Amino acid sequence: MIKTRRPLYVLYAPREDLDPDDAVLSFMNPDDEYNVAWRHPKFFFGRKEMEGIREDARASYVGLVARIGATRCGGRTLRQALAIDGSGNPWWYHKVSEKQVEVDGTFNFLLQIYTICRVASRGKYEDIALFNAPAEVCDVIGPAYKTEAKDTVRDRRPVLLRGLFSRLKFLAQVIRYHVALGRTGKLPEGRPDIVFQGFWDWSVTADDRGAVRDNYFKALPDRLKSNGMTSSWFLMLDPSYKPGSQGRQLKNVLSSSKNNQRLIFVEKFLGICDILSAALNFRSAVTYIRHSRSKEFRSIFRTRGLDLWPLLRKPLAYYFFNAGIPKYLLAESAYRKAFRYYRPKGAFTFLEFFLLSRSFYEGARLGSPETVKFNMQHASYGREKTFILMDAEREYRGSPDACPAPAPDYFFVMGELCRDIQIENGVSLEKILLTGSARYDNLDGIRGHERPLKAGEPVKVLLVPTLNLAMEFEIVQAASLAADGIPVKLKLRSHPFARMENLPGYKKYSDNIISSTSTLEDDLKDADIVVSTYSTVAEEAFLRGIPVIQWLTKGFNGSVFRDLNIVRKVSSADELGRALKSFIADPKPFYPTKDAQEAVLRNCFYKADGQASSRIADATAKILSSRAK
Prior knowledge:
Blueprint: E1 8-11, E2 23-26, H1 30-36, E3 43-45, H2 46-49, H3 54-70, H4 78-82, H5 95-98, H6 106-122, E4 127-131, H7 135-141, E5 146-150, H8 159-181, E6 194-200, E7 204-206, E8 212-214, H9 220-226, E9 231-237, H10 250-253, E10 263-265, H11 272-279, H12 283-292, H13 295-299, E11 302-303, E12 306-307, H14 309-321, H15 324-342, E13 346-349, H16 355-367, E14 372-376, H17 392-396, E15 410-413, H18 416-425, E16 432-434, E17 459-464, H19 469-482, E18 488-492, E19 513-515, H20 520-526, E20 529-532, H21 536-543, E21 548-551, E22 568-570, H22 573-585, H23 594-605, H24 612-628
Parallel strand pairs: 1-2, 1-4, 2-3, 4-5, 6-9, 6-13, 9-10, 13-14, 14-15, 15-16, 17-18, 17-20, 18-19, 20-21, 21-22
Antiparallel strand pairs: 7-8, 11-12
C-alpha cells in the first residue's frame, strides 16, 4: 500500500477537515489554538518556533530595506534617482525606509515565512498547505514549495486610489491647520539657545499662565536654564493623536499657546503655495516607477532561495503615492525655514530615526548648519524595534552613493543596550553619551525587593499592552484562558494613546478583566505579577521587584527582554496558565534577583538617581562650549 505524503498545514485560522496525525504549524490566535492544539500530537506553536530564526530574519529585513535604496540599477541607486537639489532625499521619508514594525507588517510576514521554512526543513516536509494565510506569505512560500493555499487573505484595495485619497485628505488637513495657525498672532521674537522638537498638544502643552509641560523632555529645559541656556519649542500641530482628542475646535486646541514666547509653530513658516506644491508633487512616485522597471531591481528581493518581492511590492508603491513623502518634505521645509530664522545653538529630538525626526535633522542641516543636533532616547529598545536599526554602511554612512540617512550629531541614550545598538548602526562611540533619559528621572530610587503574596487573596496580574492593539489583543485572549480555574485577578492597563477596551472583540473578555483607571504608580503597587509583550512598564516593574512574564507574539519581539534573557517567556495560553500556577505555588523563582535588576537598570535606564536631566544638560553645555571655541 502506497502511503500518501502529507503536507505541513500552516494555519492562521482553525481548519476542521484535518486528521489527528496531520502536522500543524499555528499562527492562530490563542483562543483558536486552545481549541485545536489538543487534537494534534504534531502541533507547532509559531510563536515558539519563531525564536530560532529571529536573528536571521532581523538581519535579512534590515539588509533588504538598505539594498532597495542603495543598489545600483541602470547605473544609479534609487536614492540618487530620487535626489532633489537643496532638499532632503525623499527615500528617507518613505515608510519602508523607516522599518516601522509597529505599523508595517512586512517584518512580521518575514518572521512567519522563515519560521515555516525552518519547520518544513526540520520535518522534511516538501508540501505546505496554507489556510487563511496573508497573501504576502502565500506568494513568497508558493514558488519555493509544493503549496496549496486556501482562503487566502488579500488586501484588494487599489494602491493608486488609496494614495490619492491620502493626499487629498492631507491637503485638506494642512490647509485647515494653516488657517487656524494664522490666527494665533506673530512668531515669537528672540533667539533661543536650544530648541526642542514637539507636537501640540500630545507631547507639549501649556497652561494659561504660560508654563510649558513637555511629556518627554520633562525637566531638561529647566536644567539647561540653570546652565545659562534659554530654550523654546519647534512645534508641529497634531491635535488628533491622543485618544478622545478628535473633533475638537482648533481655536480651543490652540488657546493656551497664544502669546507664549517659547512656543514656535514651524508650520507658520509655510505658505499656501508650499502646501499645494508638496501635496500635488508626484515626482518621486514617477521616478520610482521608472527605476523599479530596471532588470536589476527585482534581483534585490531574491535571498535564501526566496523571492521577497511580494512582501514589499504594494508598500513600496503605496508609500510613494500616498501623503507620506509630501508630509515629511513639507515638514522639512518648515523646519528649514524655522532654523534659518532662529539659528539656535542646539536642537533636541526624542524620536531617533522616526520620519518626522529625519525632517527635523534635515531642516537643521539645510537651514542652520552650525546648529548641533541631539537625540534623547525616550523609551527602551530591543533589537527588533527595527525602526531604530540602520545598516551601518549603506544607511548610516550612506555607501555607495554618499546619501546617508538623516541623523543627529549626538545620541543621549538610556542604557548600555541602546548604546550597543547605535554602535552596531555605525555610530562612533564619541557621539553616544550614556546619560539616561529625562523622561525617566522619576525612577529615582526605584529598585525594590520581592513582595510576598498575601495568603487567601487572589494573585493580581497586571496586563500591560502597548500601542499595537492588533498584536496585543493576543495577551487579553491568552490571559483570559490561562486564568480559568486559577485564583487570579486580571487587570488591564491600556496604553494612554491606545485603549484596548475600544477594540470590538474586547467585550467578550471584559467580564473577566478589570480596566485600570489608576495611575501607573498605583497599578504597580497593586500588582503581584506583570504580563507584557514589550512595554517599558514591564522594565519599571522588574526594577520594583515585581515578577514579569513576557508573552511572545506571532510577530516581532520589541522587548529589551529579548536581548536580556532574564524573564519567563510564554507562547501559548496553556504555557501562561502553567506559569501562573507555578508562581502561585512557589513565587520565589519568579522574583527578580539583584543581579538581574542591576542588568535591567544598566542596560535600559543607566541609573535610577533622578539626575539624567542634569547629565544631559551638562554634556550639552560642554559640547556647545567646545564648538564655540
